Structure formats: C-alpha cells, structure tokens
Amino acid sequence: MDRQTKAAILCAGIAAPSADNSQPWRFAWRGDALDLHIDAGRSGRVSDTRYVLSDLAAGACLENMLIHARSLGYAADLQPFPQHDDELWVARVRWRRDPEGDPIEPLAGAIEQRHTDRRFPWRGPITTETQARLNDQARLIPGQRLWWPPTARERKAALGVIRQAETLRFRSPTLHAELFSSIRFATGWHGACEEGLAPATLAVEPPMRPFFQALRRPALMALFNRLGAASVLGWRSAWLPIRLSPGLCLLVIPSTARSDVLAGGRALQRVWLQATLDGLSVQPYAAAGVLSLGFVPIEPAFQRWLSRMGAALGQLCAPGYGLVFLRIGYARSAPRDRSGRRALASFDAS
Ligand SMILES: Cc1cc2nc3c(=O)[nH]c(=O)nc-3n(C[C@H](O)[C@H](O)[C@H](O)COP(=O)(O)O)c2cc1C
Questions:
Q1: Global ipTM
Q2: Model confidence pLDDT, tens digit, residues 52-71
Q3: Beta-bridge mates of residue 328
C-alpha cells in the first residue's frame, strides 16, 4: 500500500463524527497493517467513562476507513481490541488487495459530505423505503439495529427520555462543566475551529447567544436553574427540534461489551452515510442512551433520574441497549457552518 493510499484512508477516518468533535483517534502503521487507538488525552471525560463515546467514534472512524479502502480495491481483516490489557487499542486492520472485490461502494461518496445539522424545522415524510434503507445499513453490522417508535405514544415517550437527559446536561454541575468546556467560545459565533464545538455549529438563535454563553459560568447556571433554566434548555435543544422533525430513530446495540459499542459506531456511521446519500439531515442525541447505561458517575442526587431514564428506554427498545437517537429530516439547504478537523499529522501514533 503506497503512502498516498494510506493517507487517503486516514483522511476518510477523521471525517467521522465524534462526541463534542473530540476526534479521539490515533493511528499507527505497522507495514500495511493499521492500528487504531483511542487518544488518552482526548477521551475518558465523565460522559466517556468506560470509553463508550470514544468507542462509538472509533467505530465510525473505522467504518469510514473500511468503506473508503473498499472503494480503492482493498479488503480488510479486522481484529477488534487485539490486546486485552491495552484498553486504548481499539483495532488492528490488515489491508489486502482484493481483485475480486466490488469497488462500487456508494457510501464512500458521502464520507466528506456527512455532517451534523442542529437546525430545525425539517420537512418529511421519511418514507418506509427510506427507513428500510437505513435499517439495512445498520443490520449489515452483526447484532446492530435501528428502532423507530411504532406509535405516537412511543415517540412521545422517547421524546420525554431525550428531553430529561438533555435537561440533566444543564442541571448536573459535572455534566454542565463537561458540555461547556467543549464549546470553543473564543472562535466567536461565526468562526470555525479544528477541534471541539464551534458555537456557529450549535444553531443558537442570535438574541439568545450572550445568555447561552454566560451560562458557561457554573454559578450563573446554578442561579438560573432555580428558575427552571435547565428545563427550558432541554426543551429548546431536544423537545422542540425533534417535534419539528419528521424522523426519530434509535441505534440499539445487543450488549454493553466494548466490541458491541464499537460495532454500534460502525452501524451509526453506515446509517448516517446512507441518510446523507438520501439528502437527509441528521442530529444525534447520545445523552439519553449513554447516561442510561449507568457508567457515568454524576452527582448522587441525579441517580434516580438515571435509573428512571434507563428503565423507560429499556422498555421502549428491548431487547438490547438504546444508545444514540437520531433526529432526521429534509433541511431546505446545507448548513453554512460545519465542524473542522485537526491536521492529519496530529493523529500519528507511529
Ligand atoms: C458518539 C457521538 C455522540 C454525539 N452526541 C451528540 C449529541 O448528543 N448532540 C449533538 O448535537 N451532536 C452529537 N454528536 C455529533 C458531534 O458533535 C459531531 O459529530 C462533531 O461535532 C463533528 O461534527 P460533524 O458530525 O459535523 O463532522 C455526537 C457524535 C457522536 C459520534
């Protein structure tokens, strides 16, 4: 494999989504084999306890690389978590030329286009054919599936769980600190940044921006929480956009084993790329699923919330563990502001 091909595969990898745009990936080439590691300095924050978010991002990155390599005529042998005592070593991929392989890989064309869109409202409908295409992509990764609320009652229940989780992100001091520390306010409301969340990508309405920015201060957040601010923010960030979008589905993984979370990231990426090809906008909501797993050590006062959320989510999508909700729909235009990426050399762990 020549250097150009190797670089092209890594470029596809880092185009993947990651929670808070943390890009927690490191790559090391061993001849034609590629090792994918989680970056110790960009992972393991409170919501990433047990590396759930990093494993999802690693799965998405891996899937992008596999898809792009296939389009270049390479097949791969994948070994997940090759060494049990190295929790950051996620996978080894051995590439080989595949003359029999089918280089037509439609999803490859969506890798650079895919992005998170936090705007609303979006148009519908999401037809059963579109749903079936997205379902098929999830199921291509063994054990993974999408759950769609079958009735209005279940959609309402799912919306309730998501709203609770998003509210908790502003109410819990631990989660609040984590959330606001990943927003790069220094770039301003129009700039881009190569890592973390650029405020411009958050779709906060202009009159609300100074207030939202001020809420990064814990004391102010606590003060406004006495007046119900967390609840309003949960309503604005989750309830309203989802109510004004035609599609909501949930990625369900079969177990909480790290290999299944990694596979979940692969399925998430396939679904998102297919949605992109279909002209759909996507916003993931991960807090409900990730907090419900029970790994995240937040303040004891909120433990009851977590148990209730976990039980409600489990009831909705059993069997399995609902991990990431996806809000989907047709936007009028592509968003002007998108998240950036670090330079490729900064991911090198060789
Ligand atoms: C595991 C995971 C969880 C995410 N959770 C959320 C979320 O809860 N809310 C949200 O708006 N975006 C979420 N995102 C989207 C990321 O913020 C986004 O992928 C990142 O900022 C890079 O931007 P891009 O997707 O436009 O490339 C999540 C992405 C991943 C992979």
A1: 0.99
A2: 999 999 999 999 999 999 99
A3: 247, 282
What spacing in Å lies between the alpha carbon of 17 and ligand 1's midpoint? 6
* pLDDT (tens digit per residue) in 108-144: 999 999 999 999 999 999 999 999 999 999 999 999 9
Helix-helix angle 128-139:258-277, to 10 degrees? 140
- Residue 185 in tokens: 């306010």
285 CA from centroid of ligand 1 (Å): 8
| CATH number of 128-329, picked from 3.65.10.10, 3.40.640.10, 3.40.109.10, 3.30.200.20 | 3.40.109.10
